[in-house]
Amino acid sequence: MDLDPIPQTIADDPHPIYRVLREDEPVHYVEKRDLWVLSRHEDVLAAIKDPETFTSADGVVPSGFKPEKPTLIVLDPPDHTQMRRAVMRAFTPRRMAAMTDRVRGFARQLLDAFPASGEVDAFESYTDPLPIYVMAELLGVDASERPMFKRCGDAIVYSSGADPASLLSAQRELTDYLQTVFDERKRDPREDLISLLLTSSEEGRALDNEELLGLCFLLLVAGTETTTSALGNAMLLLERHRDARELLIEDPSLIPAAVEEILRFDSPVQGLSRIVRRDVEIRGQKISEGARVHLLFAAANRDPRVFDEPDRFDITRSPNNHLAFGLGIHFCLGASLARLELKVGLEELLARAPDYQLSVDRLQRLASDTNRGFSKLPTVL
């Protein structure tokens, strides 16, 4: 059996491979990738809580790709600490809560465009545009540029096997666009995140130009693609588990807990990588300084040592200590916004199209080393 977990992001069910890794080979070496894989919850958790040993500075994907501009996901302390403190003022609970009505408005606008009956691609019409519209609103960029955001984001997130020139071109196109927005906001500030982070306040310093480019690049790429993936995964899970869907329709107050179970059961980010700064030994296996280690969140999220009946989809599960957003210093900056989008997105979808049916034989996934997402969601209304 080939225990390379990377191709499993597009498998209908990646967990048979993940289960073998977690139970029989919890510290596994994939020779053809020169990649170590950790798959037990305890080991993954220990690694993400130890950035001094498991550094993010050399890229967090198996290929070693890292953005041109400095951004939180590939920074370690002290640079990470300083930058995160500067940007957290833009992601306060109050600011995120204030986005609720806008998220709901975008969701309803998209659903209003659905036909009364027949088939629609829910990816193109709902799960993909919703996070982009929300992030564009938050940042203060033009949502009409969605095709460019999507093209550049796909080139980077779904870049398995892509040539470096294509990745560089996508980064440059997006950062060139963002630079024009920054220049406009410096002349004419607005009530948006970019304007806020271009200024200093008691809550935090202004970001310099390179830092802000890196942050906005991260938010427009990782901050939208992962939520799109989670919404698509949610639709498929609620197609396959109609009993859970009926519960949510009858009692929408269960949706926040369902969101956590969706994130655990079919994690939108299956795993991210680190480089070890020193020789380490895990479960009797030595991993040498400089090696790349892949933290398989999706396998850890079904570890029976942590979760009762881990392969059962249970929208009432509590507690639910999943690692879909990471933990520690690199805990997802936009986790509260993603949870809001998933909650509102499901509330509105189930209210408008409670009997939707996915054409599961025609679903299409995008190839990625890290993300588990769709490119087509044919849906019968």
Protein architecture, described:
Strands 1-2-8-5-3 form a 5-stranded mixed β-sheet, covered by helices on one side. The chain is globular and about 55 Å long. The relative contact order is 0.19. The model has no long low-confidence stretch (mean pLDDT about 90). The protein has a single domain, classed as Cytochrome P450 (Cytochrome p450, Orthogonal Bundle). By secondary structure, the chain is an alpha+beta fold.
Highlighted features:
single chain; 381 residues; alpha+beta; Cytochrome p450; 5-stranded mixed sheet; 3-stranded antiparallel sheet; 12 strands; 46% helix; globular
CATH class, named Mainly Alpha
SS-based class: alpha+beta
Strand order in the largest sheet: 1-2-8-5-3
Order of helices and strands: HEEHEHHHEHHHHHHHHEEEEHHEEEE
CATH architecture annotation name: Orthogonal Bundle
Shape: globular
The CATH superfamily appears as: Cytochrome P450
Please work out how many helical segments DSSP would assign. Answer: 15
User: How confident is the prediction overall: mean pLDDT?
Assistant: 92
What is the CA-CA span between the terminal residues?
40 Å
Q: Considering DSSP H and I runs of 4 or more, what fraction of the residues is helical? A: 40-55%
Reported for the largest beta sheet, the result is: 5 strands, mixed
Structural domain tally: 1
Q: Spans of 5+ residues with little confidence (pLDDT < 50)? A: none
- Under CATH, the topology can be stated as Cytochrome p450
Binned strand content = 5-15%
Instruction: Give Rg in angstroms.
Output: 20 Å
Number of strands: 12
